[in-house]
Amino acid sequence: MTGNPEPAFSENGPATLYLAGPDMGGFILPQMLPAYRDDARFRVVSLAAEWEDIKRQVTQYRPEVLVIEASVAPGPDQLKDFLNQMVGTVAMVILPPAWAKFQGMFQGVQTTVRGVYLSPVNWAAVANATYSAVATERARTATASPAASLYRTEGLSRPNTTAVVGTRTIAFTSFAGGTGKSTIAEAMAVDLARQHIKTLLCSFNFPAAAVGHMGQNLHFSPNATEWLNRPTVDGFLASLQHPRGLDDLDVLLAPDDPHVLASANGRKAEEASSIRNLIFAAYSFNYGAILLDLPPFADSMWALHGLLAANVALLVCRPTLHDQFAAIHAYRLLSEQLAAQVRIPADAIFAVLNFTSSEDNINVRSFQGDIAKVVGRFPPILEAFPHIPSLPRLQSVGDTPVLAAGCEAFAQATRSLSAKLVPKAVSRNNLFVLM
Ligand SMILES: Nc1ncnc2c1ncn2[C@@H]1O[C@H](COP(=O)(O)OP(=O)(O)OP(=O)(O)O)[C@@H](O)[C@H]1O
Ligand SMILES: [Mg+2]
User: Fold this and answer.
1) Are residues 240 and 280 in the same domain?
2) What is the extent of the structural domain holding 104?
3) Ligand 1 test: best mutation among 173, 182, 214, 394, most atoms within 8 Å of CB?
4) How many domains does the chain have?
5) Are 75 and 215 in the same domain?
6) Among 186, 190, 385, 391, which is best to mutate for testing ligand 1, by the most ligand atoms less than 8 A from CB?
7) Among 102, 145, 151, 201, whose CB has the most other CB atoms within 10 angstroms?
8) Is the pLDDT confidence value at 157 over 70?
9) For residue 351, how many C-alpha atoms fall within 13 Å in the half-sphere facing its CB?
10) How far apart are CA 366 and CA 369, in angstroms?
11) Measured distance CA(432)–CA(427) in Å, rounded
C-alpha cells in the first residue's frame, strides 16, 4: 500500500483499483478481492471498510476505479454526492438488495459511475466491466494526438497544430463512393469493442451499411429517428442498437425513412435537432471512441455534419488515379474550405489505402507523392488494407473481417489503425490485455 497519489488513466499497465465494502472479512476479502486477482489486468491500490477512510483515500490515491458496495456509505445521498464530486476516478457500484430502488439514481451519476449492479452479483462480469471502463476511460481522456509522433518520424514537415483532446470522433470520409469507409469503420468498431473500449459506430449511409455487413442481429430500426424526434438523453438511448456478443459496442443507424432523412438533411448545424448535434449528444455517454461512417461526400448533410462534429478525419482511398483526384478534393475541403468550421486539427487528418494488391501500379508512397506534387502536401497514409476477394461474401453472412479466416492481413491493418488513432488501443505487438 502506498500513500503516493498516482496520475489517473495515464498508465498502460494494469487498471488501478480501490475496493470498498461494509465488511472486510465477510465481503471484501472473500468476494471482491478474488474477482480482481488477475495481475495482467488489475492492481489493487488499497481497500477499506470504513466510509471516512474511503472518502479520504480515494481522493488521495486517485485509483482509476473505485469498486464500492454501497451500504458502506451512511446513506444513498451521501454516496451519490461523493461519486458526483470524484475527479480522476470512475466507480463500479454494487447495491445491496435493499437499495434496489436507487439503481436509477446511481446510474444517473454519469460523470463517474460506469456500472451499477444489484447483489448478488456475478463477479466475473463486474471485473470484466471494470476493465472495460478503464480501457474506455484511458482512450477517452488521453490528450496527445497518437499519430502525431508517427507523422514526425515520417519526416513530414507539417506545422504541429493543436492536438486532439478527449474522445476520438473519427470521420471516415471520401469523395468517391465504395472506397471501403463502412467496411473499415465497422472493422475498427469491432476491434475496439473487443479491447473493451466503449465505442459508438454511427452508420450514416442510406440504407445503413452496418445492417447489411454486421449480421442478423442488427435491424434498420431503432435508428437516429428516435433522437431526431426527441433530442433528449432518452431519445438518444432509444436510437441505439447493441450487436450481440460485443458488450462495448453501440450502433447508431441513419433513419430508414427517406422523409426523416431528408428532413434532418435540411436542418442547419446550429438547430437543436441537427445531425451535428445528434453526434454531439453522444458525448454525454463517455465513449472511448466515436466512429462516423459517413456517406460519400456529395450534397448530403449526413456527410458534412459528420465532418463538423469530428476531431479526426480519415480519408479512405483506393490506389487509383480517380481516388487521387477525389482525395485532393477531400483534403482541400477539410484543410481550406471548411477549415474555419471543423474541429479537426491539421495534424489529425489522415488517409488509408484500401483494396491494395500486388498488382497495383500506385502504392502508398506514390499515391501520396503524386498528390503532394499537386497540392504541396498530403496527410500521412496510416495503413494499407489488402483487397480480400471474399470480404463482400463474408459481410453478407454477418462475419467480421476482424475474426474471419482468410482476413488476417485485413484484421492486422485494422488493429494497427486502431492503435494509431485511439490512444491505449493495443497494437498487435502488445496483445497481453486481450482475453
Ligand atoms: N479490402 C477490401 N477487399 C474486398 N472488398 C472490399 C474491401 N473493402 C471493401 N470491400 C467491398 O467493397 C464494397 C464497398 O465497401 P464499403 O461499403 O465499405 O464502401 P464505402 O466507402 O462505405 O461505400 P459508400 O461510399 O457507398 O458508403 C463492399 O461490398 C465491401 O464488401
Ligand atoms: Mg459506406
Assistant:
1) yes
2) 15-141
3) 182
4) 2
5) no
6) 391
7) 201
8) no
9) 27
10) 5
11) 10
Which atom of ligand 1 is least distant from the CA of 388?
3
Q: Could you identify the atom of ligand 1 that is nearest to the CA of residue 293?
A: 22
pLDDT for 197-244, tens place per residue? 999 999 999 999 999 999 878 999 999 999 999 999 999 999 999 999
pLDDT of the residue at 61: 82
Q: What is the CATH number of the domain that holds 27?
A: 3.40.50.2300
306 lines ligand 1 (CB under 6 A): no
The CATH number of residue 280's host domain is 3.40.50.300
- Indicate if ligand 1 lies below 6 Å from the C-beta of 209: yes
Q: Does ligand 1 lie within 6 Å of residue 388's CB atom?
A: yes
Q: Give Cβ neighbours of residue 306 (< 8 Å, ≥ 6 apart).
A: 171, 173, 202, 204, 275, 279, 292, 294
Residue nearest to atom 30 of ligand 1 (CA): 392
Atom of ligand 1 nearest to the CA of 385: 1
Dig out the grid coordinates for 209 from the structure: 451499411
**186 and 55 in one domain?**
no
Of 141, 174, 193, the domain-final residue: 141
Residue keyed to cell 438511448: 237
Does 356 sit in the ligand 1 pocket, CB within 6 Å?
no
Q: How many CB atoms lie within 10 A of CB 363?
A: 14
